[in-house]
């Protein structure tokens, strides 16, 4: 794999030299606009940071089964799959509650997001996504807690106004060999000069995942998924628009496959796994340079996570339920003060209410209700004020930003009584770019970040993975200092982005074993702010269009993490990974062979070595070859994805289930 990486670098340099003579051609890389980096529209080429944009066209090409799988192979993103119905994105070596996920600017992260991999990104229907932006290494100043590794933002599709009333519809069907997926999607869009509506329903049944040449069917791993979405736009005037939106997902009987395979469980599943989000957004423009654009967003989000478990040979069923209601309010002002200075400032407020309970029932007896994983009726208030500024001075670009964030956390614990804590954080960022010409950007940036302790950190009581956790109410925020230097270049025929970074992490919250204590024979742990670490790495993204119809592309990311406190690797650090491919696209059809790769990962923390999802000695490296092809016309589209042509048996590092084996996924779309 190291030989490949060297060859890849040489190839990048070679095609860069050829690209100087191919300015009549166009690349997609760095040709997009993003809003995530500074809460304002900005050309990705000119952004002083590492931002990837996955467009609607790219999503149409890949036809991802789930939202996490839409990120597979994306530069600097590594997807760990605890089970078939999950998918946790690693941004620069961090995941779970150390990365931030947004939907249309609204936090998906709530006060019970867990450390380490989780399944929450999989509760977003991939059919409602119009664009995904990934900001690696930043986001705390703009969006608050949790963005230690970066920020992932998903934008849902918007209906469009039209001069004359119009009706459009779409129906999508997908089937995968081995009955791994049967899917139907129906949507409709209505438009007028001042009103527009879009909505749809998705019905997806996933069968057991079939692995590579030695794995075969991994059972049980299949589940059912139902989703609904609706969005209504009102043009209140030429300057003001009101958006009303709702989305919901319900998943049933989502098995945690590795617990059946590697642990002593007859039943272990999420049932149900539900999420709903409703919001309004009022936005418009004014004549004032200090308030060029104003937006007000109010949101209501609810999650319902049920967990069912029963050990082999046991007649006792455990049912756990966690329900979180989140209300949010965001007020943002965009200021275009002059041609050299613009800013984005605002306030954010989120409030969580947590309900949690546990029911144990032995066959033939009455159920016994007790404290859930979290203290019932816990409350978590998150409030902030922020301001981000961008300055232009000839060929130089400067960015400065600051944020004050406060929290009020109230927990009513049955054992420890009422607990109230009020942590705060004051952070900032700064960057400098030098645009040598319209094609090049040299930049360096600094981002400070934080993650406030949440209710999962403070109030957990019960079995998590293979540990028994007890509450901890004296925690402080985790903090990060991310330094980055990079270079971006784009001509019409060639584009590249390269970055080096180091992220210093302090006050890390980690589980510490309570000496001499066991509950039901299981070691007892408590969270404490006792660790510091760093993660450093490099990223490279290259695209070259070498004829009217052909292009080649590739990307790679390397992360090296060290836990300084323990003098060992950081847990779950992804290995060197990336992708490379070739695309032929002409008129209405395309074909795209592509390879994903990951080096072996043998640098293991003690927690990795004790994790039954990681093979003894580490996770082997792999290369998987896929081919995508399709045709898209005015009234229909056909997409075929042939995955893992060599039927390689592989697993992404830290996952609890192997990747899909040789298979064909066929999608048919009808449009009117």
TrEMBL record:
Residues covered by the TonB-dependent receptor plug domain: 45-151
Chief place where the protein resides: membrane
Lineage: superkingdom: Bacteria
PROSITE patterns: TONB_DEPENDENT_REC_2, TONB_DEPENDENT_REC_3
GO biological process: siderophore transmembrane transport
A Pfam family annotated for this UniProt entry: TonB_dep_Rec_b-barrel
Membrane topology of this protein: Multi-pass membrane protein
Domain called TonB-dependent receptor-like beta-barrel: residue spans: 265-645
Signal peptide: 1-19
CDD domains: ligand_gated_channel (cd01347)
Localization annotation: Cell outer membrane
Gene Ontology molecular functions: siderophore uptake transmembrane transporter activity
CC terms in the record's Gene Ontology section: cell outer membrane
Key words, A-Z: Cell outer membrane, Membrane, Receptor, Signal, TonB box, Transmembrane, Transmembrane beta strand, Transport
Family: Belongs to the TonB-dependent receptor family.
Protein name listed in UniProt: TonB-dependent receptor
Organism: Dyadobacter fanqingshengii
């Amino acid at each position: 794999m190291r030989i490949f990486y060297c060859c890849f670098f040489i190839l990048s340099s070679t095609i860069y030299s050829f690209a100087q003579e191919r300015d009549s051609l166009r690349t997609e890389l760095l040709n997009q606009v993003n809003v995530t980096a500074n809460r304002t529209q900005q050309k990705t080429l000119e952004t002083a940071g590492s931002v990837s944009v996955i467009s609607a066209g790219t999503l149409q090409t890949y036809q991802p089964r789930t939202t996490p799988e839409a990120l597979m192979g994306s530069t600097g993103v590594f997807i760990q799959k605890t089970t078939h119905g999950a998918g946790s994105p690693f941004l620069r070596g961090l995941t779970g509650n150390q990365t931030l996920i947004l939907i249309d600017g609204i936090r998906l992260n709530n006060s019970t997001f867990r450390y380490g991999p989780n399944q929450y990104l999989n509760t977003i229907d991939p059919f409602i996504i119009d664009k995904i932006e990934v900001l690696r290494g930043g986001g705390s100043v703009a969006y608050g807690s949790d963005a230690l590794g970066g920020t992932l933002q998903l934008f849902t599709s918007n209906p469009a106004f039209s001069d004359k009333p119009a009706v459009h519809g779409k129906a999508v069907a997908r089937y995968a060999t081995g009955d791994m997926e049967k899917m139907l999607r129906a949507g409709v869009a209505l438009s007028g000069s001042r009103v527009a509506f879009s909505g749809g329903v998705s019905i997806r049944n996933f069968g057991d995942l079939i692995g590579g040449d030695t794995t075969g069917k991994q059972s049980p791993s299949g589940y059912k998924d139902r989703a609904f979405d609706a969005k209504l736009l009102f043009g209140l005037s030429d300057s003001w628009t009101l958006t009303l939106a709702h989305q919901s997902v319900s998943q049933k009987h989502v098995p945690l496959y590795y617990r059946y395979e590697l642990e002593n469980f007859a039943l272990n599943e999420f049932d149900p796994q539900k999420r709903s989000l409703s919001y309004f957004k009022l936005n418009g423009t004014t004549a004032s340079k200090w308030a060029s654009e104003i937006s007000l967003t109010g949101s209501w989000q609810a999650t319902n996570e049920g967990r069912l478990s029963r050990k082999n040979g046991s007649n006792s069923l455990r049912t756990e339920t966690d329900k979180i209601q989140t209300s949010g309010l965001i007020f943002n002002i965009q200021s275009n003060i002059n041609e050299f200075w613009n800013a984005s400032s605002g306030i954010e407020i989120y409030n969580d209410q947590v309900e949690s309970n546990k029911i144990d029932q032995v066959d033939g007896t009455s159920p016994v209700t007790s404290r859930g994983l979290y203290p019932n009726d816990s409350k978590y208030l998150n409030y902030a004020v922020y301001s981000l500024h961008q300055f232009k001075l000839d060929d130089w670009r400067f960015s400065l930003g600051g944020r004050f964030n406060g929290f009020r956390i109230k927990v009513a614990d049955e054992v420890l009584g009422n607990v109230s804590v009020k942590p705060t954080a004051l952070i900032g960022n700064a960057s400098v770019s030098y645009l040598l010409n319209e094609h090049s950007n040299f930049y360096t940036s600094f981002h400070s970040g934080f993650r406030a302790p949440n209710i999962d950190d403070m109030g957990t009581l019960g079995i998590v993975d293979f540990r028994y956790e007890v509450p901890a109410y004296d925690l402080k925020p985790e903090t990060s200092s991310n330094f980055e230097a990079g270079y971006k270049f784009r001509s019409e025929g060639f584009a590249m982005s390269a970055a080096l970074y180091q992220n210093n992490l302090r006050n890390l919250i980690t589980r510490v074993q309570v000496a001499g204590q066991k509950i039901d024979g299981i070691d007892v742990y408590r969270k404490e702010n006792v660790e510091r670490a760093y993660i450093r790495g490099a990223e490279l993204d290259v695209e070259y269009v070498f004829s009217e119809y052909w292009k080649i592309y590739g990307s790679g990311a390397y992360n090296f993490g060290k836990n300084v406190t323990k003098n060992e690797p950081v847990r779950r650090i992804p290995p060197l990974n990336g992708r490379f491919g070739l695309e032929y696209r002409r008129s209405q059809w395309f074909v795209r062979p592509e390879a994903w790769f990951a080096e072996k990962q043998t640098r293991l923390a003690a927690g990795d070595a004790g994790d039954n999802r990681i093979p003894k000695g580490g996770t082997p490296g792999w290369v998987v070859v896929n081919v995508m092809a399709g045709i898209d016309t005015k009234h229909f589209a056909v997409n075929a994805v042939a995955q893992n042509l060599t039927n390689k048996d592989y697993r992404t590092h830290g996952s609890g289930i192997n990747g899909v084996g040789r298979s064909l996924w066929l999608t048919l779309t009808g449009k009117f």
